[in-house]
Fold:
Amino acid sequence: MAAAALAEPSLEKDVIAEGLLELLRPAIQQLDLHVHSVRESQVELREHIDNLATELCRINEHQKVALDLDPYVKKLLNARRRVVLVNNILQNAQERLRRLNHNVAKETARRKTMLEASGFSSRSPSKP
Structure:
């Protein structure tokens, strides 16, 4: 009887933990989608910066009047470097989110299996 009394608080904790996991899952998935879309826009921005830098270099080479576009090209390349750095940070964050989401799903499945094995139903206890 004492073992049954100890098992009930453990089951309650498991139910609460499962509820928290289910609560966090949509937020993690939404954050993962947003990070993915930001990464795509970062790649697009990097490509535009590369094209603009190439075009400025080409214009600079064909100009009859000597315009010093090198500082602008350097600024563009510096901006590109920062975009790549942010993209790498986002990629690492997205990978961590994916692992977290995977672990949440795995833990939820484990706890659900434990609850089902112990005979605990997902219904709240009621008087017959």
